[in-house]
Amino acid sequence: MEYIKLLLGIGMIIGFVWILYQNRNRSGLVNALFRIDNVIIIIVGFYLIITAVYSLAL
């Protein structure tokens, strides 16, 4: 289960970076970075990665 959480977190961060890369021309980088859906993706992705690494380390 922890490996799945780790892979999902990494996948979400990679997906966020891809979406941010695709939207950089449409709007400014700062505008695309602080959209609410992007902020939620960042928070959830890092949460999944941190909790999975913590559980695997113990």
Structure characterization notes:
It is a single chain. With 58 residues, the chain is mostly helical. It has one domain (2-57). 83% of the residues lie in helices and 0% in strands. It has three helices and no strands. Helix 1 packs antiparallel against helix 3. The model has no long low-confidence stretch (mean pLDDT 80).
Kindly summarize this structure in a few lines.
This protein is an all-alpha fold and 58 residues long.
SS-based class:
mainly alpha
Euclidean distance between termini CA atoms: 14 Å
Order of helices and strands: HHH
- Give a short account of the largest sheet: none
Count up the helices.
3
Helix content: over 70%
Taking pLDDT < 50 over at least 5 consecutive residues as the criterion, the unreliable ranges are none
Q: Assess the beta-strand content as a share of residues.
A: under 5%
Number of strands: 0
Count of discrete domains? 1
- Rounded to the nearest angstrom, the radius of gyration is 13 Å
Q: pLDDT average, as an integer?
A: 80
Coarse shape = elongated
